Amino acid sequence: MSKVTIIGNTTWGNTLAALLSSKRTAVKLWVRSEGEVEKLNQETHSYSVTSDIGEAVDGADLVIWVVPSQKLRQNVVHAKNYLTSSMILMSAAKGLEMDSGKRMTQVMAEEIAPSLRRRICVLSGPNLAREIAQGLPAASMIAAQDITVAERAVGLMYSPEFCLFTTDDVVGVELGGALKNIVALGAGMIDGLGLGDNAKAAFITWSWAEAISLGAALGAKDNTFYGLAGLGDLVATCVSTLSRNHYVGCELAKGRSLEEIAASMTQVAEGVYTAKAVHHLTQKLNLEAPIANLIYRVLFDNLPVIDALAVFNKLTKSGYKPSLANLR
Asked: Could you give the C-alpha distances from 189 to 96, 250, 272, 299, 307, in angstroms and in order?
């Protein structure tokens, strides 16, 4: 029997634990405290729960970090002494580290032994946890520098309801999963203003073109952004009422402050942190991403959403067409 460790008592972490344990895989979910263990053990589930990281990781074939992006580094450090060369190490976090702008697999690689770095992979795609928890079908991508690692991970995670595909474009898969959250914030703002689906579709089109161009400048393959980890995830995040990032954008457009919205939520909207990371990254690398910068200004410079929309309209009417040439 295969053994999988899930690190992170998140909605997605619990969903993956339930999904994988239903296929006769021995799954252990690591949580931070005994209090969380006791609370989870009051529920009925097919996986075991522990707050002992050594016990959680021991003998695992696959270790999956399912934590907010800004908490990934400390969670990798917590487990690093228990990792072995027989394990596959997977990130299921969608975002960029806010201060450094680094992708999640880069963060992992910095904290683990060099000999383990080729064991790293990433899971990303249109994976709304609540739908998967209900047994609805979904598909996703697993990317690894060594494609055999990705293929092995697919074998360990196989489920008829959860189709998995592989690629070696780690950069593209991670950036697709991160940048679509910024677009979803903007799409939510359009909906919050009540401007309709036509306007939202136009915004998504221009914004995603900018994301693709930015991704290419950072080393991603263009075609990855048209696949499950790009366009697929974008659609799910921009249109679903289950999307946290869309919700935040919508509420901002209604006049609520970011602080008020965040305080009312029990889960993280990753796009908020990614917007700040992208802002710092584009400044550092002398790249231009004016639409992403507008989202940043709404979030952190108190730019009213209606004023941001006016700037966006002026930008598009001026003939702005995101491309790699424009970004340089």
From this structure: 22, 5, 13, 11, 12
